[in-house]
Here is the input.
Amino acid sequence: MLTNSIPKLLQEANEVKQALAAIGAGLPPEISAAGMEARIAELEAVISELDAVNADRTRLVNLKRDKAEAASDYIVQSRAVVKGIFGADSSEYNMVGGTRVSERSRPKAKDDGTE
Here is the structure.
């Protein structure tokens, strides 16, 4: 019966708890305002724990993105330094992942339709 959202479910549970407290006598012992209060507290505790885990996950995802960007920037800087020191056609530049000038494909002439 979890067709409702959690906030709406908590609101409904609090309304039922108040009604059970007002009814009081005549209910079976396993149905009471105290029982409803215990279930509300358990759900709120799990929600709080889940919120903390989600916040920690968000922090870690952001940290991962920042570290990946830093690594990518370092790769670009490393290639630029190697290219500047050894040249754009050097084997050292190729070793760090750059494409040597002599290995680049030549641009093809465009056919303008005239012969």
Notes: The two ends are 76 Å apart (CA to CA).
